[in-house]
Amino acid sequence: MKEIKVAFAGNPNVGKSAWINALSDADFQVGNWPGVTVEKKEATIKWDDSMYHLIDLPGCYSLEDIGNEEKITSQFLLQEHPDLIVNVVDATNLSRNLLLTLYLRELQIPMVLIFNFMDEVEKQKIHIDINKLQRRLQIPILPYSALDKKHYKDVKQAIIQMKDQNPFYYPFLEGEDLHQYIALYNKLEKAVPFQTQYTENELHALCMRLLHQDELSIRQVLSWGITKEVLQEQLQVFEEEVMEQNRFVTIASFMKYVEQDETSRYAKSNMIDSVLLHPVWGLPIFFFLFTIILLFVFQASTPWNAFIDYLINDVGYRYLTFFLQMFPDVLQRLLLDGVLSGVGGVLVFIPLMSFLYFALSLLEESGYMSRIAFLLDRMMSNFHLSGKSFVSLLLGFGCNVPAIYATRTLDNEKQKKLTALLIPFMSCGARLPIYVLFAAAFFPHKAGLMIVTVYGIGVLLALTMAFVYAKFANLKDEEMFVLELPPYRLPSLRVVFRKVSQEVKGYVKKACGIVLLAMVVLWGFSYFPNGDLQTSYMSSMAKTISPLFQPLGFGDRWESVASLPGGIIAKETIVGFFETISRDTKNELKVPTIEIKEDIVQIGKQFLDAGKNSVLSFVHPQLQLKPEKDSQVKHIQGLWTGEKASLKAFSFMVYVLLSIPCIMTLQALYHEYGKKIALLSITSMIVLPYLVSLIIYQLCSLFY
Amino acid sequence: MKANKMRKGSVGIIKQIQLPKKDKKRLFFMGFCEGCELQYLKRAPMQDPLLFFIKGNQVILREAIAACIEVEVIRK
Fold first, then answer.
1. What residues of chain A, 481 to 500, have a C-beta less than 8 Å from chain B?
2. CA geometry: angle A557, A563, A564, nearest 5 deg
3. pLDDT over 80 (residue A390)
4. What is the model's pLDDT at position A28?
5. Which of the four pLDDT bands, split at 50, 70 and 90, describes residue A430?
6. Angle, helix A215-222 to helix A228-235, in steps of 10 degrees
7. Cβ A381–B31 below 8 Å, yes or no?
8. Would you place residue A95 in the very low, low, confident or very high pLDDT band (cuts 50, 70, 90)?
9. A283 to chain B: which residues are within 8 Å by CB?
10. What is the largest CA-CA distance in chain A?
11. Residue A14 has what DSSP assignment?
C-alpha cells in the first residue's frame, strides 16, 4: 500500500488539530517530537488505496531558526519530504498568516490552503476575493470552517488530488531581482553534479534557500565546485533586509483582495476582556473561575474514581481470587497485589485525567489560557516561571499527576521543565490523610495549624528551588516573552471530547508499562522471603537503615522508615502501612463467593451513585480533615512517647511532604520530560527531605 | 517615545527596535516591523506585561521589551 505523508502547518491557534480531527476519526498517535517537549500528533487513515499520515506540525510564524516550533517544522519539511503540505490559515487574520504561506511555498512541495474560521469571516463582514488570491498564490484555497461537517469530503478530495501533482510555485520577485534569480538558477543548473538527480522544482527550492542565506544549502552548492566568490557575488543582491521587505511587499499586494475592518476581529473579545482583564476585578474573577475549575477537576471526578476503584479492587479482586484458587500463594499474591493493583493504580486516574483535560481544553480552546498568562505573568516571572505555570502549580495541590500533564500548556521548554520539577513540592491530596492522622495524634489542639505549616513549607521550598534549578540545572528561561492573545472563541464540544479521549488513551498506553514494573518490584520487596510484610525484605532493610534517620528524630521507630517506600506506590499507602503492620495475624486470602447476577446489579447501582455524587460533590465540596478511625490515632500515638514525640512526628510529616514523588508522578515526569528530569526530581526528593527534616528537628530540639 | 510610555489607546509608528537579532526577528514575525502601526491597549492588573494591538492581533510584551521599541505617536 502506498504511504502518503501530509504535513499540516500553520500559525498557533488556527485549528490545525481540529482539521486533522475532523478528517480522521481513529488511530491518533500522541507523542513528543524528538529531543523537545513539543507535542507531536499523527493520525493514520486509509483513503482509496493509500495510507495517509496526517502530521500535526507545531504552530509557528515562519521557518527561520528562532524557536523550537520553527526548528521542528522546517526540519520536518526539509528532511522527511512530505508529499503534501496542508497550510491551515486563520482567514480573519490573513496579513500575518500568509507570511508562513510564503515560506512554505518556497519549499516547492505541493500545497493546499485551508481558510479556517470562514463562519467568523462572514460574521465580521470580511470580504476575500478567493479566486484572485488563489491564482496569485497558485495554490487551491478551501474556504471552510472545521466545524462545518459538510465540507470534510471536499478537503479530502483536494488532498487526494493535489498529492499527485507537481506544481511549480514561481518566486515572488520583480524587476532586477527576477533577472538575478534566473541567472543564479542557470548557474546552478549547470553546476549540478551528474550523478545527483535534481528535479527542476528541487533546484528552485534550493535556489530560494540560497537567497535566504541558508547555511546548509550554501555548503551544498560549494561542494559542487561553485567558488565562494562567485556565489557571494550572485547572492549579494539579495540582502536579508531586502528579502524580508520583499515578503512584506508581496503580502501587502495580497491584501488588495481583502476588505476588512481591522478592529472587528477583537470587537467581541474586547467587550469580554473589559471584564475578565479588568485592572481591579480581573484577578478576583480569575481566582473565582479557577476555584470552580479545581472543584470540577478534583471533587466532581472523585466519585468516578471510587467507582473504578470498586470495579477493580472489589469486583475484579474477588473474581481474580476466585479463578486463581488452584495456583500457589506467590502467584496469587503477585497477580493480585502486584499486577492488579498496578493496573488499578493507572486506571483509577482515568476520571481525574478526563476531567482535567476537559477543563484544560476548554481554557485553551476558548482563549482564556493566554489571558491567564497575561494576568499572572508579573507574579511568576520573578521565579523564572510564566503565568500559565500558576495553573499547573495550583492543580498540584489536588494531585501532582494531572498537574504535570498540564504543564504542556506552557509556551516554552525550560519553563515547562522547571514548573514540572516544582510540582512535587505542592502537597497533593493523597498526602493530606497522612498529615491529618499524625496531626490528630500529636497536635490534637492545633492540627489545622500544623497542616497549613506543612503546606507552607512545601510552597516556600518550591520557590527557593525555582532559583536553584534555574541556576544549576540550566532551566533559566532566556527566551523573550511574547504571546498572542487570540480572540475568544466558543469551544466546539466535539473537538474538546476528541482531545480528551485521545489524551486519556495515550496516558493509559504509556503509563501501564512503567507503573506495572515498579509495582511488581515493590510488591516483591514487601512479600519475600516469608510472604508477610513484617519479616519482608522491605521491613528488614528499614530496620538496618533506620539509624540513618536518627538525627531526623523519627528514625528511632523502624516502622516509620519502612512506611516510606510504600509512598512511592501512592502516598496514601503510608497510612495503610501503619494499619497493616499493627495487625498480628497474617492476612489470609479468603476464597470469595461469586454471584454474577448480584454483581451486575451492584455495578449498575454504583455507577448511578457515582453520577449522582459527582454532581453533589461539585455543588457541596467536602474536605476530609478528621481521621477516619480513632483506633488509628491511638496506634499512631504509640509510635513515639516522651517530650520530643510531637517534634518527631512533625519531622516525619515534613519528610513525607518532600519525599520521592509517587510512581504515577514520576512516570508523568518521565513520559513528558524524559529520564534526566525524572532523575533530577528523584535526586532532589531524596536529598531535600533529609536535609529539611534534619534542620527542623535539630533546630527545634535546641529550644525544647 | 518608548512603547512602554505610550498613553492608553494611542497609536504610534515603530521607528526602531533595539534588540538582539534573534529577538528582533521573533517580534518581526508577530508583526512588529519598523514603519508599522502599533497601538498600546492596556497593562496587566499587576502593571506588567503590556498589551498591544499590531497588524490585526493582540500581543503581550513585557515592559522591559516594550522599552526597547521606539515609536512616534501619531494618534492619541
1. 481-485
2. 110
3. yes
4. 66
5. confident
6. 140
7. no
8. confident
9. 45-46
10. 94
11. S
pLDDT tens, position by position, B3-56: 999 999 999 999 999 998 888 888 888 888 888 899 999 999 998 899 999 988
Q: Are strands A482-485 and A2-9 parallel, antiparallel or unpaired?
A: unpaired
Q: Which residues of A touch B59 (CB under 8 A)?
A: 482-485
Cross-chain Cβ contact A378/B47 below 8 Å: yes
Contacts of A485 in chain B (CB under 8 A): 51, 57-60
Mean per-residue pLDDT for A700-704?
82
Q: Is the Cβ pair B65, A248 closer than 8 Å? A: no
Of A372, A366, A351, the closest CA to residue A492 belongs to: A366
Cis peptide before B49 (omega within 30 of 0): yes
AA letter at A624? Q
Whether residue A433 contacts residue A563, with contact meaning beta carbons closer than 8 Å, is answered with: no
Cell of A401: 499527576
Give the orientation angle of helix A537-545 with respect to helix A493-527, to 10 degrees: 80
**Tally of CB atoms within 10 A around A632:** 18
pLDDT (tens digit, 9 = 90+) per residue, A230-282? 888 777 777 777 777 788 888 889 999 999 888 888 989 999 999 999 999 99
State how far residue B32 is from chain A, nearest Cα, in angstroms.
11
- Helix, strand, or coil here: A425? helix
CB < 8 Å from B in window 232-291 of A: 244, 248, 260, 262, 265-266, 269, 277-280, 282-283
Are residues B29 and A61, on separate chains, in Cβ contact within 8 Å? yes
pLDDT at site A463: 92
Q: What is the pLDDT of residues A175-231, one digit of tens each?
A: 778 888 888 888 888 888 877 777 888 888 888 888 877 777 888 888 888 888 888
Asked if A377 and B42 come within 8 Å (Cβ–Cβ), the reply is: no
In whole angstroms, give the CA distance from residue A546 to residue A55: 53
Burial of A602: CB neighbours in 10 Å, binned 0-12, 13-18, 19+: middle
State yes or no: pLDDT of A651 exceeds 70: yes
Cβ of residue B60 closer than 8 Å to a chain A Cβ: yes
Of the residues B11, B16, B21, B26, the best mutation for testing chain A's interface (the one with the most A CB atoms within 10 Å of its CB) is: B26
Residue A342 CB contacts under 8 Å (≥ 6 apart), including other chains: A512, A515, A516, A518, A519, A520
A95 touches chain B (CB under 8 A): yes
What residues does A689 pair with on adjacent strands? none
Contact between A570 and A348 under an 8 Å Cβ cutoff? The reply is no
Return the residue in B37, B46, B50 with the most chain A beta carbons within 10 A, the one to mutate for interface testing: B46
Residue of A nearest to B59 (CA): A484
A445, three cell numbers: 489542639
pLDDT for residue A91: 92
Predicted model pTM: 0.84
Residue A85: pLDDT above 80? yes
